[in-house]
Design brief:
The structure holds 3 protein chains of 3 kinds.
Chain A (H helix, E strand, L loop, with lengths): L3 H18 L10 E7 L6 H20 L8 E7 L4 H14 L4 E3 L4 H14 L3 E3 L14 E3 L4 H15 L4 E7 L3 H17 L2 E8 L7 H10 L3 E3 L4 H14 L4 E4 L8 H4 L7 E5 L8 H14 L5 H20 L4 H10 L3 E3 L2 E3 L11 E7 L2 E8 L5
Parallel strand pairs in A: 1-2, 1-3, 3-4, 4-5, 6-7, 6-8, 8-9, 9-10
Antiparallel strand pairs in A: 10-13, 11-12, 13-14
Helix pairs in contact in A: 2-11, 3-4, 5-6, 7-8, 11-12
Chain B lengths: L2 H33 L6 H17 L5 H24 L7 H23 L14 E4 L2 E4 H23 L1 H11 L1 H6 L4 H27 L8 H14 L4 H21 L5 H15 L14
Antiparallel strand pairs in B: 1-2
Chain C lengths: L6 H25 L5 H26 L7 H19 L3 H23 L4 H20 L10 E2 L7 H20 L1 H11 L1 H6 L4 H27 L1 E2 L3 H4 L1 H14 L4 H17 L4 H18 L12 H17 L1
Antiparallel strand pairs in C: 1-2
The chains are: A alpha/beta, B mainly alpha, C mainly alpha.
Chain lengths: ~375, ~300, ~325
């Protein structure tokens, strides 16, 4: 043992062992730990950043007014890069190492699909503020969301088009590689045909495509009264622009994914004749919505998009549930998440449901001169 | 539904798409012709060119042509630097090493661009207003014609340079036999550098035109088009300038036809299917000559 | 007593002991709460990556065939084994095996035409095939198509992925040291010369390719039952994933199995530790990749495998150094 190299070796071994012992502690008594999984980098980074901004803002304001039953909320944010593998791993880290009481996020459906089974198996409640895929909440009773389902959204748009706009023939162009788009297209088509309308043609593309001339040429030739484009703004924008170039005069129907400050820039040339279903409108005069918009704009220097609003509302739901649960016991939180009611939120009044999807209203917005104007508000019973 | 009209229109769309591939393929084919390297980073230089143009127009308030010149010059410098730092030291190394370095360079540009510019899509400033040009029952736009025209013009210009100038002769010599060319007194370092500069400048020009055409740019915009342009170059005959344009146009049409009449999800597979077919049945490309390997 | 046990068996005994020890260590630490299941999951992923990198090494490193479509085989194994376990409730190991065999067959089908090409062209062709596989999966509704395949049962444990990693290294190492392996090495060094000496290059190239594909299929099966959800994206089963595997291979050293193992483990653990610096990860990787290619093309560990001989030499070296003091 007198050999210097052996001593160093033993020292190194000791240090290694000690560092593994320095694992962050077991269940904290003081702050309530909440994890947030969101894509801060990668192709959908803008969504992730919006959600993160809003959630941080929401948690800060709750902590500022005393926290939950006297306990502060500690938010742990992990970047999942919009990638399912990363998301799953990050979720495990949140559950095992950070010992969170519940998980907020992920933001996009594929990531949610990867994380939900893990959360369900571990018995940790998970609430995605923005995931709209129908099958999300079918994954288990610990899985919740703060947004409406795609089936609801698609149905609303179909009803609006048929009943309010008098459209009887529509076409659809959608992203076959995106759960969100596929789900919406199914819901719209089913309702529209049920009401008596006819989907005269459909075209598809894959995520990331930027040239839609082939599909749009085919669609334009059939001259539909309306074109339904259920996708995020990054695809909807170019489609709108190229459709206009083709000389398409159809009414454009869209969804919440269109909501982004960049839509009009990307859709260069599109300004009128468009309608979308959304979670909230900046015109909504409800005090909660206006207060949220003001606070967000003041803090971050830009108006919040729908994802930010949903993120913020997610915090409100979580806060109310934590209060009602009275502890960090996952069972209690799960029960609370399914039963809290009457939450005054930025996207309307929310009642949570044990199935996992909130009962809340939607809005229809119309594009006028380059901005969105509130046209109608649809209740949750959806007519 | 008038199938004839539809088919014709899709053909025009295909040619427009193909012109994009042709533009990018020109740079690829030049570099490959000289040093037999698939410059994976070529697609990223195309992307950088688009961003450079974007900032030139929005932050420096330049109009289209000065912005393009600035972007092309900057890209040329970046291309020369890349060659000097990453490829030149490996000139006598096994092919695998150079290829991996090229992949590494491509990843480096892409990830750095994501860090610096942000990952989201940016709308590209519409420096040229678009106009429809009706040709009977079908139509095209001034931008489509612009890209097509630029691709053809550049093809002719490059072809003249390669075939009829002294520098072109030097390029051809280096591509045929590097060592012999050196023995003849040709400064191969300089020839290679300039080739890279030219190829990169072309890529940048393509980037700006395409950014404007589709109205959006993002750090990943170079990957797929880069690969497809390479396939186009191979299809036409790698190392042959007119081959790049022929290959590009053919690929664009093929891809568009498959999307229009078969299935849109097969879009990317078209390029790779063409690639494999070419490599197996006519590896020298459509315009290439047959060359057997000497032992 | 020691002198009576032949050297070969002694070495095998030590290796077996060391491997068993590692396994017990991991479980022990987990039992004492020093290792969380989060950590163990990462180790499982590391084992999966070991299988991927070592199998790619067989093709790229030992046979010199530049393949950058390896993720395609991963995908075949992942999806087919998942389909079996989900639809038919096949036992895990059976599903894994079937998935791997299927991947091997795909490797054969692709290898026969592709391996006629060389260098850059082979690389691009394999890339192309990898993407075609991805597009086929994207269009196959039975495995979820574009929406992905969810609900895959969580059968992968540290235990079985560790075991399969060991098996993979064992098999491939033996292959490389056998006559077949030497033929592959000959092909790598100079294919035409090898042919002229009677080495049937097509046979061996395709053999190495299919074998590599087989093991990638095993890794794929483990992967899908680890993640429980597969999405047909470039990052999971496409070009970007193939590049990820390639990076690990190159950094570990082409033709160096120990290097592959170490690189796979390190490059699985380090990104987790550096979660905060995720945006810089790719930048750093690509710079390292370029630097390694320019200055140390044999990989970060150099061209020599860490065998017992080397270990013994270094211990001897340390002893000698000590006795001088």
């Amino acid at each position: 043992m007198s050999h210097p190299k052996t001593k160093i070796l033993v020292l190194c071994l000791l240090m290694f062992v000690m560092s593994t012992l320095a694992v962050p502690g077991l269940a904290q008594e003081e702050p309530i730990r909440v994890g947030l999984l969101t894509p801060l980098t990668g192709a959908v980074a803008t969504y992730g950043q919006s959600v993160r901004n809003a959630v941080v803002m929401g948690i800060d304001s709750i902590n500022a007014s005393g926290g939950i039953n006297g306990r502060q909320i500690e938010l742990i944010v992990l970047d999942d890069k919009g990638d399912s593998t990363e998301s799953a791993q990050a979720a495990r880290r949140l559950i095992d190492r950070e010992k969170v009481a519940l998980i907020m996020g992920p933001v996009i459906t594929p990531a949610v699909m990867a994380v939900a089974p893990i959360a369900q198996a571990e018995g940790i409640p998970m609430i995605t503020p923005t995931g709209t895929g129908d099958q999300i909440t079918e994954l288990g009773d610990y899985i919740f969301r703060a947004a409406y389902k795609d089936s609801f959204q698609g149905r609303i748009m179909a009803q609006f088009a048929y009943e309010n706009l008098g459209i009887t023939e529509a076409s659809i162009i959608y992203d076959i590689a995106n759960d969100y788009s596929v789900g919406l297209r199914g819901a719209f088509k089913a309702t529209f045909e049920e009401l008596g309308g006819k989907v005269i043609s459909e075209e598809s593309y894959s995520t990331g495509d930027n040239d839609f001339s082939a599909q749009l040429t085919s669609l334009t030739m059939r001259n539909p009264q309306a074109l339904f484009i259920p996708d995020y703004y990054s695809a909807a924008g170019p489609i709108l622009m190229q459709a206009k170039l083709m000389g398409m005069t159809s009414v454009m129907l869209g969804v919440d994914g269109w909501d982004s400050p960049d839509l009009y820039a990307l859709a260069n040339g599109f300004e009128e004749d468009g309608y979308i279903v959304n979670h909230y409108s900046q015109d909504d005069e409800s005090p909660m919505t206006q207060a949220f918009i003001a606070e967000y704009t003041a803090r971050y220097g830009a108006a919040p998009d729908a994802l930010a609003a949903l993120g913020y509302d997610g915090v409100l739901i979580v806060a109310r549930a934590l209060e009602a649960a009275g502890s960090t016991d996952p069972e209690a939180i799960k029960h609370a998440l399914g039963t809290v009611k009457n939450i005054e939120a930025a996207t309307g009044t929310i009642d949570m449901d044990p199935e996992g999807t909130p009962i809340k209203s939607a809005v229809i917005l119309q594009s006028k001169g380059g901005s969105w104007v509130l046209v109608d508000k649809i209740d949750p019973s959806g007519r | 539904m008038n199938w004839y009209v539809m088919g014709l229109q899709q053909l025009i769309n295909g040619l427009a798409l193909g012109s994009v591939y042709a533009l990018i393929a020109l740079g690829y084919t030049m570099v490959y012709g000289i040093i037999k390297l698939i410059n994976f980073a070529h697609g990223e230089i195309y992307m950088l060119g688009a961003y450079l143009g974007f900032y030139a127009i929005t932050s420096l308030n330049l109009s289209l042509v000065p912005a393009m010149v600035l972007a092309m010059v900057s890209a040329a410098i970046i291309g020369m630097l890349l060659e000097r730092v990453a490829y030149r030291p490996l000139r006598s190394s096994p092919r695998i090493a150079v290829l991996i370095t090229a992949i590494g360079a491509s990843l480096l540009f892409q990830s750095t661009a994501q860090l610096v510019f942000g990952a989201s899509f940016k709308p590209f400033p519409q420096a040229i207003p678009f106009t429809r040009i009706q040709l009977g029952p079908v139509f095209t736009t001034n931008r489509q014609l612009l890209i097509f025209g630029v691709a053809v013009a550049l093809m002719i210009a490059l072809h003249i340079i390669v075939q009829y100038t002294t520098f072109g002769k030097a390029m051809r010599a280096v591509s045929m036999d590097k060592d012999a060319a050196q023995l003849m007194g040709i400064n191969i370092d300089r020839v290679i550098s300039i080739t890279f500069a030219l190829g990169s400048a072309l890529a940048a020009a393509a980037g700006i035109l395409v950014g404007m055409y589709y109205n959006r740019i993002d750090p990943y915009m170079g990957t797929m088009p880069g690969l497809k342009a390479f396939v186009a170059a191979v299809l036409g005959g790698i190392g042959i300038v007119p081959g790049a344009v022929v290959g590009g146009l053919l690929m664009g049409v093929a891809e568009n036809m498959v999307v229009a009449f078969v299935s849109s999800t097969l879009r990317d597979a078209v390029a790779f299917a063409i690639l494999i077919a070419v490599l197996l049945f006519r590896p020298n490309g459509l315009l290439g000559k047959n060359r057997t390997e000497k032992v | 007593m020691r002198r009576n046990i032949p050297k070969m068996n002694r070495r095998t005994m030590y290796t077996g002991l060391a491997l068993a020890l590692i396994y017990l260590l991991v479980h022990g630490l987990q039992a004492f709460g020093l290792l969380l299941s989060y950590h163990v999951q990462i180790l499982s992923l590391a084992c999966i990556n070991i299988i991927l990198v070592v199998s790619l090494n067989l093709i790229n490193g030992f046979t010199g065939q530049f393949s950058i479509g390896h993720a395609g085989f991963l995908a075949v194994g992942a999806y087919s084994s998942a389909y079996l376990t989900v639809t038919f409730h096949t036992p895990f190991f059976v599903a894994l095996l079937v998935g791997a065999i299927f991947a091997g067959i795909v490797g054969l089908i692709i290898g026969l035409p592709a391996l006629r090409l060389k260098g850059d062209y082979l690389a691009i062709a394999t890339l192309g095939f990898g993407e075609i596989i991805r597009v086929i999966i994207l269009n196959t509704q039975a495995v979820g198509g574009a929406r992905g395949f969810s609900g895959i049962p969580n059968y992968t444990t540290f235990g079985n992925s560790y075991l399969l990693a060991i098996l993979t290294v064992f098999v491939i190492r033996n292959f490389v040291n056998s006559d077949h392996g030497r033929a592959c090495l000959a092909i790598r060094e100079d294919e035409i010369a090898a042919e002229s000496l009677g080495v049937h290059s097509t046979y061996f190239k395709t053999l190495a390719f299919s074998l590599g594909a087989f093991f990638a299929g095993i890794a794929g099966g483990l992967f899908s039952h680890y993640l429980q959800y597969m999405a047909p994206t470039s990052g999971q089963i496409g070009f970007m994933k193939s590049i990820d595997i390639l990076i690990m291979l190159v950094l570990g050293g082409l033709g160096n199995i120990t290097g592959s193992v170490i690189a796979a483990v390190v490059l699985t653990i380090v990104p987790e530790l550096l979660r905060g610096f995720a945006e810089y990860r790719m930048v750093i990787y690509s710079i390292i990749l370029i630097l390694v290619m320019i200055y140390r093309p044999d990989g970060l560990l150099g061209g020599r495998s860490l065998g017992y001989a080397r270990l013994k030499n270094s211990i001897e070296g340390v002893k000698a150094h000590a006795s001088h003091k």
